[in-house]
Design a protein that fits this description.
This protein has 211 residues and is an alpha+beta fold. It has 10 helices and 4 strands, in the order H-H-H-H-H-H-H-H-E-H-E-E-E-H.
Length: 211
């Protein structure tokens, strides 16, 4: 009941936050562009002011889980269902899961603005901001076959040498047999394609140019 009673004030707060110039918000550690970035930045600002960043991040994972429920998803993601019905449905689900007012009210804003379908993108954008907030640097490694533990440890050590003292490596590994061998590395804003497939393509291009 207390959460529901505070909804109008919180809703006005978020609506105002979304319309304010970025200079009046708590500045995020990185800029995430697009509609999802705008909403995620407003949420980061509000959660930061209330010192609830970690709690909100955890609760957004619960929101994603809730939206995977076929019954709930089919209703809130249906463009033909009235907005007021979606708002009540998502609000009831979040209150039942005992999420905090800030998360409930933020979802209320998304529902009111007809942006529930963008919820996963907004949550992903918020995750990127939080990752930067923790000083994490995302590194993605793609190889043709899974790396063994020894290779993984060696790779982590080598990549950590490119980070600043306060930064933390967050390694993500993927396998893609189509690259044939070698690896593709993406760390921060840097990208290096050292795959066998890429080398073959470059060699083929050179040979064709010399014919």
């Amino acid at each position: 009941m207390a959460a529901a009673a505070g909804l109008p004030g919180k809703l006005r707060f978020f609506s105002t936050s979304l319309a304010r110039p970025a200079s009046q918000l708590v500045k995020p550690p990185i800029l995430v562009y697009g509609l999802e970035g705008r909403y995620a930045t407003a949420l980061y600002s509000a959660a930061s002011k209330q010192k609830k960043l970690d709690q909100v991040e955890k609760e957004l994972s619960q929101v994603l889980t809730l939206l995977k429920d076929p019954k709930l998803s089919s209703l809130v993601m249906n463009p033909h269902i009235k907005s007021v019905i979606k708002q009540k449905t998502i609000n009831d689900a979040l209150v039942k899961d005992k999420l905090s007012p800030i998360t409930i009210n933020f979802m209320k804003v998304l529902a009111e603005n007809g942006r529930l379908r963008q919820t996963p993108d907004v949550i992903s954008a918020f995750g990127k901001i939080m990752s930067a907030h923790r000083g994490e640097v995302l590194c993605s490694i793609t190889t043709a076959n899974p790396l063994d533990q020894a290779s993984l440890t060696e790779l982590k050590t080598a990549l950590s040498g490119f980070l600043a003292k306060e930064e933390v490596l967050k390694l993500e590994t993927k396998t893609d047999p189509s690259i044939l061998g070698g690896m593709i590395v993406s760390i921060g804003d840097k990208y290096a394609d050292m795959s066998t497939k890429s080398k073959i393509q470059k060699l083929t291009k050179i040979m064709r140019e010399t014919v």
